Amino acid sequence: MDKLHVSIVGGSGYTGSELLRLLVNHPHIEIDQVTSRQDDGKNITEIFPFLPKKIKNKFVHPDNVSFEQSDLIFFATPNGIAMNFAEMLVSKGKRLIDLAADFRIKNIPLWEQWYGMKHACPKLVETAVYGLSELKKNEIKDAKIIANPGCYPTAIQLALYPLLNKKIINEQTIIIDAKSGISGAGKKNDDNLLMAEAYDNFNAYSVQGHRHEPEIEENLKEITNTKDIKALFVPHLIPMVRGIYATIYVDLNKDLSEDELDSIYSQAYDQSIFVHFMGVNKIPKTKMVRGSNQCRISCFNRDKKLIILSTIDNLVKGAAGQAIQNLNIMFNFQEEAGLNYIPLNP
């Protein structure tokens, strides 16, 4: 079987290097071009010595890259980059997965408000598929453009979907308290991300509003056919490298037994390879998912107040891993191809 040729635009950041780590052992993938401005011409293994020496590729400057041999292109770039390439690539029969936010929100004025720029290809946003793998498989199969979900939205939507889909919670009173490891901010020069600043420290940020909030609300409304959803979302930065941990508070419309809650989540995810409902009254831990494409979920019922706990690795299920899972669905590979990584412990 001929291998699928893929390229990565933005290969020197955290999500780009994570794509390389996962793709190198994918049985059906040949890595074609990997771009980097600052590392142009350098061997990938020189910049990332943790990668195996069988990777012979060199980084290519994005101005000199050719995608002629590529079947699919990953964009592991900042917001606002993929949308400038999308029309050209789609016109040439290429498929793309954007790990940034260019195609995540269908409401273009809302997207422009949150991201502070004019959208370059609003018509393509209409046809792009939001790549929440477990819940959008049929649409993903035929998609030309995949909007890979954000890390927070992945953990949060997987936790809320079964309840919203059954119409058993108040969709107007959702409160989300979520934490992210420092790698979620990307590889950049920011004083707040220095070890001396981030270590032994814990803080909220974007308290007055975070751009993942409209992404969560819009896509949950669509996949659960809910007229309106209001989610109060406050993210926090924690002094660890990897991990997303979401604690979600919702009001139940009726009292539910532990068996009923277990049944609701089991119906949603029993056939899922990567989403694990641990049962009621269990505590997911970030180390249960670290380095893997897994999501761990549990919940606690306290007098018709439900507390849902959800954790993922922000660089894997929250970024590169879910992108590869979407690729596998698009090209009819085994869904777990290249993703059979057991979480790291300890």
Automatic annotation (TrEMBL):
Protein's GO biological process: L-arginine biosynthetic process
CDD domains: AGPR_1_C, AGPR_1_N
Active site residues per record: C151
Enzyme class: oxidoreductase
Enzyme Commission identifier(s): 1.2.1.38
UniProt KW keywords: Amino-acid biosynthesis, Arginine biosynthesis, Cytoplasm, NADP, Oxidoreductase
Residues of the Semialdehyde dehydrogenase NAD-binding domain: 5-143
HAMAP family: ArgC_type1
Protein name (database record): N-acetyl-gamma-glutamyl-phosphate reductase
Organism of derivation: Methylophilales bacterium MBRS-H7
